[in-house]
Amino acid sequence: MKILKANAGSLTNFEVLDFLQSRGALNDPTRLMSSVTPSEFKVYDYLVKTPACNQTRESICEFIEKSKEYQLAKAEVLNIINIRPSSAVEIVPIIEEWENRMEDKIEELAEMIVEVLPPGPSPPDEPNTEEEPNADDEPAMDVSAEATDGKVNNGDEQMEES
């Protein structure tokens, strides 16, 4: 491996994901045969759940080109690519002094981001937390006063069978 330029700059999540895939993170479900370390697999597992998994070099280059008109700092561009905000509310924390720099263009930037950068993976369906009655379960006991002839059994007494 030949290093062209050490520490040339920050990488997008897409570039890190692409690098890990090129080293075999994608092709080794057993995680035993590739040259990817366990910590790199953890990074890979995280990145496949982010917008980076659906991005392409073309979409990133197109975004960088279109974002020049907004005069964003390199760090702001990098954060937008990695986070892929889809509304002005999500963009505001990323842009330093946004009120002075682009108050009237923030919605326009949000629309451009949604248009150019693909969305992240859809979240998995929420598991159903409500318990549904199971036919194999025993029926619930009726412990109302009516069912016990007005007598309440606190567990110390034995109930008489009639």
Automatic annotation (TrEMBL):
Subcellular location: Nucleus
A Gene Ontology BP annotation from the UniProt entry: transcription initiation at RNA polymerase III promoter
Highest taxon listed in the record's lineage: Eukaryota
GO cellular component, one term: RNA polymerase III complex
Entry annotated with the keyword Transcription: yes
GO molecular function: nucleotide binding
Compositionally biased tracts (Acidic residues): 127-140
Region Disordered, residue ranges: 115-162
Sequence ranges assigned to domain RNA polymerase Rpb4/RPC9 core in this UniProt record: 1-120
Keywords: DNA-directed RNA polymerase, Nucleus, Transcription
Record's keyword annotation contains Nucleus: yes
A matching Pfam family: RNA_pol_Rpb4
UniProt similarity note: Belongs to the eukaryotic RPC9 RNA polymerase subunit family.
UniProt protein name: DNA-directed RNA polymerase III subunit RPC9
Organism: Opuntia streptacantha
